[in-house]
Amino acid sequence: MHHAHQLLDTLGVSAAHLQGGSLGVRSPIDGARLANLSPTPVAAVADRVGGSHAAFLAWRQVPAPRRGELVRLLGEELRRHKAELGRLVSIEAGKIASEGEGEVQEMIDICDFAVGLSRQLHGLTIASERPGHRMMEQWHPLGVVGVITAFNFPVAVWAWNAALALVCGDPVIWKPSEKTPLTALATQALFERALQRYGPDAPPALSQVLLGGAELGQALADDRRVALVSATGSTAMGRALGPRVAARFGRCLLELGGNNAIIVAPSADLELAVRGIVFGAYGTAGQRCTTTRRLLVHDSIYPELVTRLDRVRAGLQVGNPLESTTLVGPLIDQAAFDRMQQALARARDEGGHVTGGERVLAEQHPEAWYVRPALVEMPRQSPLVREETFAPILYVMRYHRFEEALALQNDVPHGLSSAIFTNDLREAERFLSAAGSDCGIANVNIGTSGAEIGGAFGGDKDSGGGRESGSDAWRAYMRRVTNTVNYSGALPLAQGVKFDV
Ligand code: UN1
């Protein structure tokens, strides 16, 4: 019905790989089974990492701009197959068509970024205190990069990591979410096409996919040859993985959850604010790590904003994400639906006033989980509000003083994304200042989600501390070496130390 197999075939994944295994894959659109894949045995991980490590030893010697050529070709394959891969994302993850394609666009953009970067992997030269000496730093390839991704961005997050890792000289070994392995196989197939066109100086196993559950991620975390583990997912996952990698002094790049707030100030352009809030809170059915989960509204505009917001919320078209008029697709599975309902029940217990949140389309799709997005007016920022629930629930609270809004915005365990709608310059600057938002992303007059790839992406506190994608995030994928070269005829020691022999 979704033509998933036809799409996979076009993308280069043979039907022979799709049946007979124990890893069942379902579409959240209607619960239909898409495939039964064969999982990667945990016992095979060490061998696979060995293959990646062998690839590293060769790839690190290929000049970076030449490595960039491979990523350029990958970008071409993605451009060519944007519609098909985007549609497969919609089928497997439930995103609306425009967001499915947008995700592939994000992959294309990071490829372009990485191609340019492949000629810009630069270090510093630093003034030496000694005569006739030169001090400099170099950035060398780091090693195998393990990439662990979540269902909600099943391919873009791989691309953020893979495009940078590959130009930096690092092979990638990818453990996608067990809920979205098909898009991973399709992406790998496109990568292999790029590899074929690239020519013979690419080693085998530059990119590999491991299919299965958390035990595979753990095996990557424990393997000393995996120099960087870049993991996107829940805070619980990061808490389990991070210490394992740290125990062997490996490097971790963690992109965990968020509990992102928007402050709406008295001077805000409410038309703009409503659009930013609705996309942030209800787009992607509330299943982005950057989703707007909390709204802090000034008393003076509270009734008007909530009325307008609720009108738009009630009218959002929920349904099949492949239909062009749909704005909110399904939740990923029943467990996600159950967690949402539990949160709403708790909200009521804590004095919240819940609008929406109920299941819809149940008769048409008994095995899919569509909900009307929820707006919950809360009397205060209760323990529930301080938690991340991965669903389209927006908690709305009032504030009176700007300082109060800022304190509430920061008073959650996560620190990923944040925004303020204001036309007051001082408020905007205070929000962005050192004493303002404590998040890795802080925006003015745009929402919390939908960041561009050119900036560094990530957050602090329970959001994990990692930064990936743009800016200088590439440094996480390389190792820094400080070199001092003496071209004098003497051997002066630093700090004026005398050691005459
Ligand atoms: C995620 O939800 O894991 O800023 C990533 C955004 C997207 C990435 C979200 N570019 O919403």
UniProtKB/TrEMBL annotation:
Annotated signal sequence range: none
Keywords of the record: NAD, Oxidoreductase
Residues the record marks as active site: 255
Occurrences of domain Aldehyde dehydrogenase (ranges): 23-479
Keyword Manganese: no
InterPro entries xref list: Ald_DH/histidinol_DH, Ald_DH_C, Ald_DH_CS_GLU, Ald_DH_N, Aldehyde_DH_dom, ALDH7A1-like
Keyword Coiled coil: no
Enzyme nomenclature, EC number: 1.2.1.3
Enzyme class, first EC level, given as a word: oxidoreductase
Lineage top rank: taxon: Bacteria
UniProt-listed SUPFAM superfamilies: ALDH-like
GO molecular function: aldehyde dehydrogenase (NAD+) activity
A family per Pfam: Aldedh
Family in the record: Belongs to the aldehyde dehydrogenase family.
Subunit structure: Homotetramer.
Protein name according to UniProt: aldehyde dehydrogenase (NAD(+))
